[in-house]
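Researcher: Good morning. I'm working through a list of sequences from a screen, and I'd like to move beyond sequence-only analysis. For each chain I'm collecting a predicted structure so we can compare shapes side by side. This is the next one on the list. No need for commentary yet; just the structure.
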Amino acid sequence: MIKLIDFETIEKIWNNHLWPNRTSPIKTHSAMMHLGGYDMGNYNLPVFFIGYYDNNKLIGTNSYHYCTDNSLRIRGLWVHNDFRKQGIASNLIKYVIDHKDQSGYIWAYPRRTSLNIFNSLGFVQTSDWQVSETSEANAYCSLG
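Model: Good morning. Structure tokens for this chain:
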């Protein structure tokens, strides 16, 4: 079951499991813009945190927030190792797609290991692979 969760709940997962070696502080939003650049105005727009629960145990997370260019960014996709390859990540992404309002398009900056999930849902890679603070290989992708 997918339900909305608070930042404090998702932040613990991100700190301990998704981005354990991250040096910059984890915040509710990201100032990143699709294909590069930053806009602090993103922090003034709505953000949503979602959790995937199995028997009241949080086994997956995702978040999405609006950006100043009328796009919607997916950020923080994580599934517990014991529950991978069961469609949970796809369901967390589909939730965002299904709850999108009139935003122009949805984008993400997934790791190489996650891009195939986004591709299977119609996302297209829109950049070369890049090194980021949290991974050796990230690439932008978008839908719509």
